[in-house]
Amino acid sequence: MHIPDGQYRPRPVQLVVATALLASATGVLLVLWLVMWLPVLLSGAATSLFAWPLVLVLAVAPWCAVIAALVLGLVARSEQPTASADAVIGISVILVLVVPAALWFGVPALLVT
């Protein structure tokens, strides 16, 4: 298959790095959330909350990675506006806002309206 010159534009490096950062940070944050809150949801007892300070400290690095992905997504969008850049930006903004509340308060913080 031949792609004519000028029709194929490679993805910006910033977008590739932002996507990798966002995917890995999301996975780590999900695992940390599950470690802290899944026992509470399954058993109803708050016995696993002894790990709460450790989980919050460990969550700082992936949360900063999400912020870095947001910045890289904005830089990539300024170079070449694509739907991928918009998706990285949107997911990053959601995670930056939701992760602190989800880790701090657990499921009730996400379900209470």
The computed structural class is mainly alpha
Largest sheet: none
**Global geometry:** elongated
Tally of individual domains: 1
Count up the helices.
5
Detailed description of the structure:
- With 113 residues, the protein is mainly α.
- The chain has one domain (13-111).
- The chain is 76% helix and 0% strand.
- The protein is built from five helices and no strands.
- It has helices at residues 13-43, 52-58, 60-79, 83-105, 107-111.
- Helix 1 (13-43) runs antiparallel to helix 3 (60-79) and helix 3 runs antiparallel to helix 4 (83-105).
- The termini are far apart.
Concise synopsis of the structure shown:
By secondary structure, the chain is an all-alpha fold.
Task: Please give the structural blueprint.
Blueprint: H1 13-43, H2 52-58, H3 60-79, H4 83-105, H5 107-111
Keywords: Membrane, Transmembrane, Transmembrane helix
Transmembrane segments: 12-38, 50-75, 87-107
Which tags fit this structure?
single chain; 113 residues; mainly alpha; 5 helices
